[in-house]
Design a protein that fits this description.
This protein is of the alpha/beta class. It has two domains: about 10-145 and about 340-350, 3-Layer(aba) Sandwich (Rossmann fold); about 150-315, no CATH class. Helix content is about 25%, strand content about 25%. A seven-stranded parallel sheet has the order 3-2-1-4-5-6-15, sandwiched between helices. A six-stranded mixed sheet has the order 8-11-12-7-13-14, covered by helices on one side. The protein has a two-stranded antiparallel ribbon with strand order 9-10. Helix 1 (about 20-30) packs across helix 9.
């Protein structure tokens, strides 16, 4: 008579924030058979004490109340924190939070800061040493990912290169309409949509693109076994609105910034080998001379030049919303579904190159 199969206890998870990504992370944790939601952190007094299910828009209680008490959540001794708090406007404060979790012995998957996907040549060595030492001491791991930066420009393109005989260039693109993307701070203050082209928001200052997306280019290079010239090459083309445009995040008067195309180029001996490219519009008809998606709302595209020539396009759309809603869902789910693998990984920084195949195991509905 065979021994009974071992029953695994669900991993205890804390959701850190309930914003545009965090609310979907809560729903994903609740739906995952190997995870149990035990705590929720919020930043506002208005959300404190509310049930996680209501904050996630599930229209039912989950029996977990949101709190601003960090110490109370850490006292729960969770197996992992799913961290989706806004990081773009508080990069180093957020890094301090994430490193602190690892130092306390708690695994973390996070949507940002995205530079932590592959922080070499971005963060100073002493910071990387601090994280490595903490992981070695506590056994806890940190993994930062999402859709872009994330799956669309790490696992997806590297998997496609497994079909190559010769690779001349790998280009990863986001071609998207941001008119329904609700992130007012990102849209106006970081990108500069709706501002005069004479203004230079933070993202377009020299070196910032390399900090924000350099992790993508260098991780792809590492996966391909090549060493890039430094620094990376930044190319930015900002275009004005030809009419007044209204988006869910910001109004864009005629003549102010309405579209941007940027490239971050990794070269080897001066030859482009790895390129990250974004064409971001706020109305589908804008800039017809730029690369366009096959669907009006947008896509992620991988273009591999070599032998053979390959092109792969990834699109997504929410069941009850548009592509920007589903963009938040896929970001959340890439993190949620990676939790078991990250918990099982050795301590310290865990990159996409370190993880085994992450799937939607357990999510097929009966």
């Amino acid at each position: 008579m065979s021994a009974p199969a071992e029953v695994r206890k669900p991993l205890r998870v804390v959701a850190w924030s309930t914003g545009t990504v965090g609310r979907h992370a809560i729903a994903g944790i609740d739906a995952h058979p190997d995870l149990e939601l035990v705590g929720v952190w919020v930043s506002s007094a208005e959300k404190e004490g509310r049930d996680a299910g209501r904050l996630a828009g599930l229209d039912r209680d989950l029996g977990v109340l949101a709190t601003r008490d960090r110490d109370a959540l850490m006292a729960l001794a969770p197996d992992c924190i799913v961290h989706t708090a806004m990081a773009d406007d508080r990069v180093f404060e957020c890094i301090e939070d994430l490193f602190g979790f690892v130092e306390a012995g708690v695994n973390v998957v996070s949507s940002g800061p995205v530079l932590l996907q592959w922080p070499e040549k971005i963060l100073p060595e002493e910071m990387l040493d601090r994280l490595a030492s903490a992981g070695a001491r506590t056994g806890a791991s940190l993994h930062v990912n999402g859709i872009d930066p994330g799956f669309a420009n790490d696992v997806l393109p590297l998997s496609l290169t497994s079909l190559s005989q010769r690779i001349d260039e790998v280009r990863v693109q986001e071609l998207a309409d941001y008119s329904t993307y609700y992130q007012p701070v990102v849209m106006r203050e970081i990108f500069g949509f709706g501002k005069p082209l004479t203004e230079r928001p933070m993202l377009w200052e020299p070196g910032i693109l390399s900090m924000a997306w350099g992790s993508v280019v260098r991780q792809l290079a590492a996966g391909l076994g090549i060493t890039l010239d430094e620094p990376l090459t930044e190319v930015v083309d900002r275009r004005p609105a030809d009419r007044d445009i209204s988006t869910v995040s910001v109004d864009i008067p005629e003549g102010t910034m309405a579209a941007v195309r940027f490239q971050l180029i990794g070269t080897v001996d001066g030859v482009p080998r790895v390129v990250l490219e974004h064409c971001t519009r706020t109305s589908p008809e804008q800039e017809p001379d730029w690369p366009r998606p096959s669907r009006a709302d947008g896509c992620y595209r991988v273009v591999i030049t070599g032998e053979p020539m390959m092109e792969l396009e990834l699109t997504h759309r929410g069941e009850h919303g548009d592509h920007n809603v589903s963009g938040m869902i896929v970001t959340a789910q890439r993190l949620v579904n990676a939790v078991p693998a990250v918990v099982a990984a050795p301590g310290g920084l865990v990159t996409a190159l370190d993880l085994p195949l992450v799937t939607g195991r357990g999510l097929v509905t009966s």
